[in-house]
Structure formats: structure tokens, C-alpha cells
Amino acid sequence: MTHSSQPADPGALGSRHRSRGEFDRAEPLLRAAVAIEQEAVPRSDGRLAAALNALGLLCKDLAKYDEGRALYERALSLLESAVDLSLGDIATLYHNLGGIEHARGDYAAGERFARRGLEIRSGIAGADARTIAADMVALAAILDGREEYEAAEGLYLEGLRVFERSPEADAGEIAVALNGLGAQYARRGRLEEAEAMLARAADLKRRTLGPGHPDTAVTLNNLAFVRQRQGAFDRAAALYAEALGIFERSLGADHPKSATCRTNAERCAAAAAPAVAD
After folding, report:
1. 137-192, pLDDT tens digit by residue?
2. Among candidates 1, 11, 69, which has minimal Cα distance to 38?
3. Would residue 198 count as lying in a domain?
4. Fewest CB within a 10 Å sphere: which of 7, 71, 195, 273?
């Protein structure tokens, strides 16, 4: 009998590591899962598409945007040509394509993908309301990037209402909507509202994801921005330092999120420094 060090389901294990922010452990497993599905006889296009999508999600986390988009597009091609067409999975891939374009700042492309995903999902009979709400929140984030604040705000609020009214309310979904809306309010100067939403989002993420997860750090960075604009420089600096430590440990010092947070911390320190006369 031969024994292999490869886990029975590397894709499932890799996705669990990714959900915990353990990206260095997730990557080899998710790449192995794609290789296994590509070599399977007979090959299942649905399983291969799922493996490609899972690896694409990780590529977005790691800022490997070109590779992530290529993986999503390959998965989409497989599903769109499949005999047993899965509209829900196709909608998810459009959602994810929108997300990766949002992450790299191509908001026009991101909006096209996100709207297509929302359109497909909304047309599915019996589609889950929470999943549609997640598509709305994702589109809201892209519209924020385009400074279409009122349209984005409406989508955030509707998504948040759906999440909070659901009998199976998910704290993670609520936190994502609160973070997006709070960040928008911070940029628009609505600091008290922003502070309340971001503080709640940070608490939810700490409890559901853990205090060292990079998604928690995103909200800590946003909350630090609010504290800075309120003139609470010491509290802002502490939050920036916490967020930066998380980003650097989980994503590396050169990741765009680490670089952005580091710049924010430096600007906060400069704003807090007393003026020196010549």
C-alpha cells in the first residue's frame, strides 16, 4: 500500500486555510486541487470550475489580479458551455470578476461584471435573498469607487436590511456591509455615523474571523481613518499599527493593503506632529 502526503480533499482544506487568513498554507493546496481536477478521468467541468474559482479568490487576496481574472474567466467558460448550466455559479463568477476589478481599481470593468452577476442572480426563480444582497453590497463598493455615493448608499442599506432581517443572519455578511457603508460615510465626513458602523463591524469581524485576520485589519484601518479625522491621533495611530501588523504578517510588507495602511499611519503621524517654527 502506498501512502501520499496529499490530503484527500486539498481544495476543501485550502479553502479553510484561506478563510482563516492563512494564505501561505492555502495556496499550495488550492493549486493542487486545480491540478487534480484537470487530470481527473472523466473530468468534471463543474468541479474544475469550482477549483479554479477557489484559487481565483486566493489570487485576489494575494493581489495576483491578472492570474485571478484568468482563472475566473476559464471557470466561466467551462460553466457557460456545460450541458447542466448552473446560473447561480455563473452569477457568482461575475460577482468575483467584479470584485477583482474593484480590488485593482478598474471600477468601470468591475461595475459591468457586478451588474451582470446581479442581473443573472435576480432572474433565478427562488434565488436566496441573502446571496442577492451580497451581490448588491459588492456592486455598492464599486459604485463607491466611482464616487456614486447615493446609489452605493442605497445598495448598502438594502443589503444590510436583508442580512439583519434574515432568520439565519450571518455576522460576517453584516460586517461587510457595515464596513463598506462606514468607510463611505467617513470619506463624506459623516464621522459619527462612520464611527458607529465601523466599530460594530470591527467587533463582528474580531469575533467571527479573529483579531489577526486581514479582513479585520481592513476595518481597523478604516476606523483609524475616522479617529484621525476626529483629531484622536493617538487612538488612530494605535489602530493603524494594529492593522499594519496584521497585514504584514498575513499578506507581506509589499502587499497593496500593507502599503496603503503604512502610508495612512505615516500621514497620521505627520498630522499629529506639532508645528516647528523656523
Report:
1. 999 999 999 999 999 999 999 999 999 999 888 999 999 999 999 999 999 999 99
2. 11
3. yes
4. 273
- The verdict on residue 27 lying in a domain is no
Q: Say which CATH number the domain at 223 has.
A: 1.25.40.10
Query: Helix, strand or coil for residue 273?
Result: coil
Q: Answer yes or no: is 156 within a domain.
A: no
What is the number of structural domains in the chain?
1
**DSSP structure string for 103-141:** HHT-HHHHHHHHHHHHHHHHTSTT--HHHHHHHHHHHHH
Say how far apart CA 57 and CA 77 lie, in whole Å: 17
Q: What is the pLDDT of residues 39-48, one digit of tens each?
A: 999 989 999 9
User: Hey, what's the cell of 195?
Assistant: 464611527
Residue numbers of the domain that contains 251: 170-272
CA pair distance 156, 136, nearest whole angstrom: 7
Tell which residue, 201, 274, 273, 192, has the closest CA to residue 239. 201
